[in-house]
Amino acid sequence: MPLNERTDAELWSAICRDDKKAFDALFERYWTLIYNTAFAYLKEEDASSQIVHDIFLNLWRKRHEYEILQFKGYLSTAARYHVFKALKAKKASNLVYVEDYTELNDGRQSRNMGDENINTAELETALQGSLDKLPKRCREIFTLSRTNQLSNDEIAEKLSISKRTVENQLTTALQYLRNALKYFPFQT
Q1: Which residue from 30, 68, 120, 181 lies 20 to 30 Å from 162 (Cα-Cα)?
Q2: How far is CA 86 from the centre of its chain?
Q3: Using CA atoms in the order 71, 76, 79, 83, what is the torsion angle rounded to 10 degrees?
Q4: Please, what are the domains in the chain?
Q5: What are the pLDDT digits (tens) for 27-49?
């Protein structure tokens, strides 16, 4: 029997046995329903498409865990859940704080420059405090490398030490700084 003539239950059973063609058939059967449900609320093509893909990706990943008896009902519920989650995220991100209103681009600025400046200042303070705890020679080599942009060879020549010593000191400094700053809330 062709895949498009099988019931949802038969297709789901095949999917649970890792049948990708059955998964494709179910996707083709229901993607429009999910997309239209999402688009009716969001009015955004990309977000609606993303919801469809998220739902089906989750189904494929958890096909061995889920037991779905009413496939159409499950998908409708999943679509509404993802829509409400997207609307909640959209609602939560409406506030925009700016340092200077002249930088505001038609209300579309999504970065909080004041917050970024505070985070940068806090990071610089934490970094400087951590650098101050390094041994003098290690701190000096790190500063020459990272602040003055000198190569390892140039640092070795300037301080009359071996290149291997420079490398070891930089490794020590970087390991210490990673450990000292590992709980600092970096923004991506």
Answers
A1: 181
A2: 16
A3: -160
A4: 3-92 (1.10.1740.10), 117-180 (1.10.10.10)
A5: 999 999 899 988 888 888 998 99
